[in-house]
User: Which sequence fits this backbone?
């Protein structure tokens, strides 16, 4: 086991949630982000967040888990600003080797899920991660790339809803 694993508490699939990219579209032009309802938050550095993301995430048929280098700080700095409750989070190991183009998070998430269906939203997902998950995770998985210039869009939420509803509760 390379990473923490809590197995979750509900029968819903897991949704591993990255912050920078999906919720904080760091690569987006500010003006467009403001128009889309994002607001700037001055933390250690500026973060752009859209308040409505919290309710939209809670409405998804998933159990939410932070999968971000913010780790527990996502509960302090991000969750209250978009109306999310405290969520479980994946703790990354001290050393996070990347090999064969596989992102450092990928093996951890497979460990955390331990066979349970999961979706993962992140701006760093690539083909090598899809191949790794297909090879090492025995349950259904959706690796959903989000554009870090746009953040999570209506289309992203729609795709997650369709997938999560189809996977449904674990029997
Ligand atoms: Mg990211």
Assistant:
């Amino acid at each position: 086991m390379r990473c923490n694993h809590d197995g979750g508490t509900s029968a819903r699939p897991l949704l591993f949630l990255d912050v920078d990219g999906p919720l904080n579209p760091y690569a987006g032009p500010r003006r467009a982000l403001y128009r889309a309802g994002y607001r700037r938050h001055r933390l250690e550095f500026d973060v752009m967040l859209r308040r409505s993301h919290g309710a939209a995430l809670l409405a998804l048929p998933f159990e939410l888990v932070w999968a971000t280098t913010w780790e527990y700080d996502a509960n302090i700095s991000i969750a209250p600003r978009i109306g999310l409750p405290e969520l479980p989070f994946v703790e990354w190991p001290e050393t996070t080797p990347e090999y064969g183009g596989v992102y450092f998070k990928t093996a951890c998430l497979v460990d955390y899920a331990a066979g349970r269906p999961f979706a993962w939203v992140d701006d760093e997902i690539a083909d090598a991660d899809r191949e790794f998950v297909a090879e090492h995770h025995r349950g259904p998985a959706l690796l959903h790339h989000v554009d870090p210039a746009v953040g999570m869009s209506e289309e992203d939420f729609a795709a997650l809803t369709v997938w999560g509803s189809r996977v449904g509760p674990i029997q």
User: Anything to note?
Assistant: The mean pLDDT is 93. The pocket of magnesium ion is lined by residues 18, 20-21, 122-124 (CB under 6 Å). The longest strand covers residues 38-42. The radius of gyration is 15 Å.
